[in-house]
Amino acid sequence: MHRLGMPVSDDTILRQLKRSNQASTQKDTIRVVGIDDWSWRHSSRYGTIMVDLERHSVVDVLEDRSVESARSWLQERPTIEVVSRDRCGLYAQAAREGAPQARQVADRFHLVQNLREAIKEQMSVYGHANVRPILSEDAIASAKSQQRRARLAHRQSRLEIFEMLRALRQQGLTYSEIARRTGYERRSIANWLTSSAPRDRNRAALNPTSPLYFEAFLADCWKNGNRVGRHLFYDIKNRGYTGSRSNLERLLKVWREVENIQLDEPPPEMEVSEPVRDPDTGHMISSVVAAALCIKPRGLLTDRQARKVNALKQGSRAFAMMRGLGMRFIGILRSRGSQALDEWIDDAIDTELTAIMRFASVLRRDIDAVRNAIELPWSNGQAECQINRLKVLKRAMYGRAGPELMRARMMPLNHRN
Description:
Blueprint: H1 10-23, E1 32-41, E2 45-52, E3 57-62, H2 67-75, E4 82-85, H3 89-98, E5 103-106, H4 108-123, H5 137-170, H6 175-182, H7 186-193, H8 215-223, H9 229-238, H10 245-263, H11 287-294, H12 303-315, H13 317-335, H14 341-350, H15 354-365, H16 367-375, H17 381-396, H18 403-410
Parallel strand pairs: 1-4, 4-5
Antiparallel strand pairs: 1-2, 2-3
């Protein structure tokens, strides 16, 4: 302020800005509002942003993420006709109680994202690659045998790739030419060919920041009936655990999912006995790549992606069924007509694929919001963009980003007149 010739301090400017924002009253009627959450601190504290989707502007920033605050905000604005939200049940409840006259709209991006996550879970053996489930004795033996076969198959594929690269190098080809022919990165090819054999990947040593460091203790507690996350977190914290509770909850989530799968085993014909390999590289196709390809239309696939899809459809009957369902679901979202939605949900449940059945059941519970997402033009895309802007402002304020100042900077000037 001194360089600008203004005889006031920075704190005075901020104080006046906060005061004018608190004294302001918004007289504009809001018909369509988008609600989304944002993080003050990731996995610890969250706030809520309200966006007027018709005027493309932020109308309020709430300090917390709770049903009570969102409900009271909506109750103060009876003119709201449409509430666009993500799949969060918290905002769905707040909209039902605070604006019962409004139509709720589930965000289409999150619908497709949830479907992709369900496909990824179905294509994965245990759901997460960085955690290990608790299994029965027979299941442990079967899992170890399957993991051993997968490791041998992966090692064999790496050996085949290494021999191919070495043969091309012996023909006098440069690293750049080999990269052009094979599709691998030039630096990766150089690393491969500097050794006489494929290098084995070294597994990182466990440390107290990982809950697997205390896996034996946690497994004993789990088998003895102690399965409450906050209790287990307190116990291993006293034993030297330095990680977060959310990291522990991810491990416990996999253990719970494995128990549910054991109680309701999928049909044997739906199980994939051997992993599907990429026809170009020989590597096993991960569940993440399979899920992304499963919902991508044929016309948008590259040649390499199309070959992967064909290999997955031939090697996994479950993938073939899920790709058909994925293409139908995206077609329904783009058709602007929800007549085929009920039939799609019934077909998804009839597949008896656990993750897909769960996704379809959740859709049925939120059927009105999903129908509105298909038929109405509104989505939460604007709210996501405003959250990106909010994050930039928050990080640029270096600790001064309190609720009042954040609200004052996010709202346009015409709302503070």
